[in-house]
Amino acid sequence: MDGEFIGWQIVHRYRAANSKGEVSFGNVLYILDPTLTKSYFRYSLDNNDKNNLESIREVIESELGYKNNQ
User: Fold this and answer.
1) Per-residue confidence in pLDDT tens, the chain, 70 aa
2) Which of 4, 20, 53, 58 lies at a CB distance of 3.0 to 4.6 Å from 43, suitable for a disulfide?
3) Cα–Cα nearest to 42, from 7, 11, 14
4) What is the DSSP string of the chain?
5) Rounded to an integer, what distance in angstroms lies between the CA atom of residue 34 and that of residue 31?
6) pLDDT on residue 69
7) CB–CB of 40/62 below 8 Å?
8) How far apart are CA 25 and CA 27, in angstroms?
9) CA–CA separation, 40 vs 6, rounded Å?
């Protein structure tokens, strides 16, 4: 194994109902420390969320000067 272990990535899928009984589904990626006690990041994996992982990647690539080849 190369490198140093720095933590865990966990995908959490959920189904939840609000107070009106409307059910929603979600997928979230968490990045946690090695002891699973601290959350470094939380990203939505859902396409309709403006703060999903894809939009965060686009911001990072824009800041680094990468061009989108699609």
Assistant:
1) 578 898 999 999 999 999 999 998 889 889 899 999 999 888 888 877 776 777 777 877 888 888 665 4
2) 53
3) 11
4) --S----EEEEEEEEEE-TT--EEEEEEEEEE-TTS--EEEEEE--TT-TTBHHHHHHHHHHHHT-----
5) 10
6) 52
7) no
8) 7
9) 11
Give pLDDT, residue 1.
59
**How many Å apart are CA 70 and CA 63, to the nearest integer?**
18
- 28 beta partners: 12, 44
Exposed/middle/buried for residue 53 (C-beta within 10 Å: 0-12, 13-18, 19+): middle
The reported pTM is 0.60
